[in-house]
Amino acid sequence: MHGRVKVKSTAQQEEEKRKEREKKLKVYLAARDACFSKRKEGIWDEGALQVTQQLLSSNPDFGTLWNYRRETLMHLETVRDEDEVQKIYEAELSFLESCLKVNPKSYGSWHHRGWVSNRLPRPDWARELGLCDRCLSLDDRNFHCWDYRRVVVKMSGVPVDQELAFTDRLIGSNFSNYSSWHYRSTLLPLLHPESPEEPAPPPRRASSSPPPSPQSRSHRVCEEQLLKEYELVQNAFFTDPNDQSAWFYYRWLLGRAEREEIISCMFVSREEERVSVAFSRAVNSAGLLLVLDGQPQRVEWRSVHPRFKHSPVWICDLAPGTISDVTNEHNLTVHWMEKHTHRDCALYTGRTESWCRDSATDQELFRSDLSVEKTSVLQSELQSCNQLRELEPLNKWCLLTIILLMRALDPLGYEKETLAHFQTLEVSRAKTRPLDAEQEVGSLTSSFSFFLFSPSRQEVDSMRSAYYGDLCSKFMIENTILKMEYAEVRVFSISDKSLTTLCHLDQLLLVTHINLSSNQLHRLPPQFAMLQCLEVLEANNNSIENLEGVYHLPKLEEVLLKNNKISTLADLEPLASCPKLKRLDLRGNPVTQVANVEAELTALLPSVVDLLL
Amino acid sequence: MQLDKHADYIAAYGSKKDDYEYTLSEYLRMSGIYWGLTVMDLMGQLPRMNRQEIIDFIKACQHECGGLSASIGHDPHLLYTLSAVQILCLYDNVDALDVDKVVEYIKGLQQENGSFAGDKWGEIDTRFSFCAVATLALLGKMDSINVDKAVEFVLSCMNFDGGFGCRPGSESHAGQIYCCSGFLSLTGQLHQVNADLLGWWLCERQLPSGGLNGRPEKLPDVCYSWWVLASLKIIGRIHWIDKAKLRSFILACQDEETGGFADRPGDMVDPFHTLFGIAGLSLLGDEQIKPVNPVLCMPEDVLQRRDLQPDLLS
């Protein structure tokens, strides 16, 4: 079905072809019917092997015929002696080898080979490994072969370092070697597991989240080996900067350690009599327990939006009167039972709210603490990548990697350079800057030369400009969170940063004021409802048309949405769930042109006293 | 775009039963019928197909064990069990089957580590995990298997690049990623996906021609307009693809002479690529085509009838 070129031919050629196909069809049907009728009669002998052989050589995807062969082989096992069985199976392996020569990518053939190897009285794993070597030398991206190799390696106990050396050879000699790098990613953690100082993962129960696969976490490789691996990868992409595999692999190496599973923040409010809890990852509410002054509470946990059965933020409401009296002090604890962890929060007399949290820095959320050696290695790699960039200014892998290295080393320190590199990557989204009158005259000639000679205006990777926009937004949000924490305030301000998306909203549970003005946001997604402390939302001058996430925000009083794309009254319905909303600025939105809009909004949002249309 | 020509191509496809290529593909006939019917339904042309003949065919393909085969006389397998149930959903005639037996068949194929074998001969592949839960979701019987264990197995197939392969340790591949994303959607576990990392790997499938490949350094193919695009839709990152360029690539894969789509411009057409070309265009927002569900590759209205709305990340 794949790769069959359409060839034009004359009427006579068509007729000849038709006759030939008719003939082939007859032959095929006869063979097929012979197999089916033999099988129906329950014949499991060498004859069965013969008739199926004919068809399978050219049609190895005809699964039922492999099944018939297997039935036959299993039957022969019972009526022949061990030596004969060994011979029969070895003949089977020969047959399979010829099938694989014709079609090296048939699931049926590879599965059958694995089945045969498993049943062979005396399997020859060295031979099987040799087959894999040969097959991979013809096509080192054949995943069927790689998967079979992994079985052979496991069954015959080939040492991990031998397989690592095998990947070394392939990577050293070949261009298209993603499969080899992938294999390395699975081998390294086995050979060089995480250091013994790392805390043992807590015992897991059947219902809890499954263990992360070893291949997905690069930190599970000891640092010494990791640094050697950086060098290896660097050699690869400097030798051939257009070979993507090495760059993908490198990004994995730069990845951070898995987060400790904790309750990252707990917020208690007397007014709403509510407890809001943020976790280090999305969780299910089963297994959460709230204890108040030593007494377990019967509460119902809810996520911030009905959409989410798994969420990093959960809320529960206490029975009325439980903590409302400000003269009472209370001690609250949330237990995350599955992870054997908990968080305490004391609500003092005279205080209307309280919280307890680990900062993003404490959690090494956006940046890991690096050892001196690692810092030094990464810095020199950054230098080398910058040198490469001079030689290959259009290589987007290099640019992106420079950005990732800067994030790893110093996210705040490199913010300006990071933004500049993103501009280069996503050039089709470059902002236009208004020219003043003086410049206009000269601008025609100067803009020509700008296009012709300025490398930063050329297409680096405009197809993926939306990806880069979102990635840059993510990094700017991370930086803003870090700055907010250093300043020890609850105001999150990120305006005029070309934000295309929002993320890390689970880190903003305590934020009271948010300024998202002058960006490129299209919506405030359901996750926005995690901002349980929000009082003022400023998001003027965006392209917002969806307010799903402005949902049950108990403290929200002011919403400023001037110059957005809110077009219908239905778009504003989520706001009705915010009981304290007093001020709403909708100027410059299409919805202001809807008939009778003022009356409709007054009915929809009765708490709003200051409505700007 | 030539929807009428494509409909004519599919309508005529099955009628040439003495065609050599058609016969050679008998081993996957049930899936072939599913591809043809689904694309016809997406184009609003399902009535042109022979409903009763197909339902009778399906009935004749259900085996005693409950599983369905690709064709009469062939052995049952999860792949064709799913295709059969999908077809019966299109025709709103699921009770043509012994549903309990189908469920029993699927249940019996789950292994201790949560994985699924394709049939009694034991081939393990995340494709089969998808087939199992998709079939059960369509039948409303997901609780008959050990879902937690099934999830555990699929997650153990997650790789360094955020993608998924056939088995633990297997390289990431767009087809497998589609199956695993679909699986995690149906089992309510999409939050376990690293959407940013996987989304990046997926959007890097787009080549300068605008077409998508299935993994790094491979050629573009119209069927990846489905596997990659649907995966991106499921994980909420479909906007990371250049839609206009992809659309032109897909349209270039049409054969204006015969109707239908080929894997690449200039190649021979077939129903498989025709479905995925049309389905890809639907995901891209083409208003001439019915909305397609990215998890199950079936018209959304059919799933609404089954009251099935799998999660998608936003």
Automatic annotation (TrEMBL), chain B:
Its cofactor is Zn(2+). One of its GO terms (molecular function) is Rab geranylgeranyltransferase activity. It holds the Pfam family Prenyltrans. Its EC number is 2.5.1.60. Residues 2-298 form the Prenyltransferase alpha-alpha toroid domain. It is an enzyme of class 2 (transferase). Coiled coil: none annotated. InterPro entries: PGGT1B-like (IPR045089), Prenyltrans (IPR001330), Ptb1 (IPR026873), Terpenoid_cyclase/PrenylTrfase (IPR008930). It catalyses: geranylgeranyl diphosphate + L-cysteinyl-[protein] = S-geranylgeranyl-L-cysteinyl-[protein] + diphosphate. Binds 1 zinc ion per subunit. The keyword Acetylation does not apply. The keyword Transferase applies. Keywords: Metal-binding, Prenyltransferase, Repeat, Transferase, Zinc. One of its GO terms (cellular component) is Rab-protein geranylgeranyltransferase complex. Belongs to the protein prenyltransferase subunit beta family. PANTHER family: GERANYLGERANYL TRANSFERASE TYPE BETA SUBUNIT (PTHR11774), GERANYLGERANYL TRANSFERASE TYPE-2 SUBUNIT BETA (PTHR11774:SF11). Catalyzes the transfer of a geranylgeranyl moiety from geranylgeranyl diphosphate to both cysteines of proteins with the C-terminal sequence -XXCC, -XCXC and -CCXX. This is Geranylgeranyl transferase type-2 subunit beta. It comes from Cyclopterus lumpus.
